[in-house]
Amino acid sequence: MNTMTFAVSLFVLANVFIALPGCHKESARVDDAKQEIDPQIKELDETFKSIGTWQAYRDVCRKIRFFGGALDRKINDVKDPATRMKYFTRLCDLAFSVPLDATDPATRSYQLTSFFVMTDDAKGCAQGYDDVDSEWSICLRRLKILKVELQKVEAFFEGKGNRDTFKGNRDDWKDYREKVNGVYGRYDRQVSTYFRDSRTADGLTYERWHYFHSQFEEILGHKVEVWPCVLEKWEKERKRRAALGNVEEMK
Q1: pLDDT tens sequence across 39-84
Q2: From CA 94, how far away is CA 57, in angstroms rounded?
Q3: Angstrom distance (rounded) from CA 96 to CA 118
Q4: What is the dihedral of CA 92, 94, 95, 100, to 10 degrees?
Q5: 186 phi/psi in degrees, rounded to 5
Q6: If DSSP codes are grouped into helix, strand and coil, which group holds residue 130?
Q7: How far apart, in whole angstroms, are the C-alpha atoms of residue 42 and residue 113?
Q8: What pTM does this model have?
Q9: Alpha-carbon gap, residue 132 to 9, rounded angstroms
């Protein structure tokens, strides 16, 4: 190889190495641009920015009819499961951020209504995606919160304290007490009516089904009946697992 040819080769190689970082940067810019212009994700991000607090969420609900249902559909329309779960989790976190801590009945009643509406929206999102586990997880979580609230109210009416929490006399809180009882009763009926059917059994593993069932019975203080076909399904599952276990032992 003569001197001229060697010099040309060095020049070409140098230009290739110089161009490589630029190619990577250009590729990164293209990828970023694709992500930035995704209208579906952009719209969801803007929506969640506008409802950064539970109060903001409720304000939007008053202005836009069926806002919660529309947001559920937008979340469930996201094709990537991990991305969809990210926004679903944000919705759940927002719904369960509603406190029940106001010391006057009007504000506390508004908090209870907001909690009721927003957890229903989160549950509806899971239901629309056929995510049975998340659906019942939300039901269980909010039922626990309502049970605690019901106990607090009843303790106040029985004169067992909580006067720092519930300001005023019992007559002031009479309507709120009825409201808490009504919401708790509705969730009791919801669990008792819908948990028993085959759709729940088909959408859960036995372990999760058993966990939810036992938790609901413990919180509600009564048996949650299930259809015979559900018990038959789990009996078949038990036998199948036992057979698999025997096969494994024989190996």
Answers
A1: 889 999 999 999 999 999 999 999 999 999 999 999 999 999 999 9
A2: 9
A3: 8
A4: 140
A5: -65, -45
A6: coil
A7: 30
A8: 0.81
A9: 64
Give the whole-angstrom CA distance, residue 180 versus residue 105: 11
Q: Which helix (H) or strand (E) holds 84?
A: helix 81-95
The angle subtended at Cα 182 by Cα 176 and Cα 188, nearest 5°, is: 140
**The tokens of 150 are what?**
């019901």
pLDDT digits (tens, 9 = 90+) for 200-226: 888 999 999 999 999 999 999 999 999
Q: Which residues of 183-211 are buried (b: 16+ CB within 10 A; e: fewer)?
A: bbeebbeebbeebbeeebbeebeeeebee
Find how far residue 133's CA is from the centre of its chain. Answer: 10
Q: How wide is the angle at C-alpha 135 spanned by C-alphas 153 and 90, nearest 5°?
A: 85
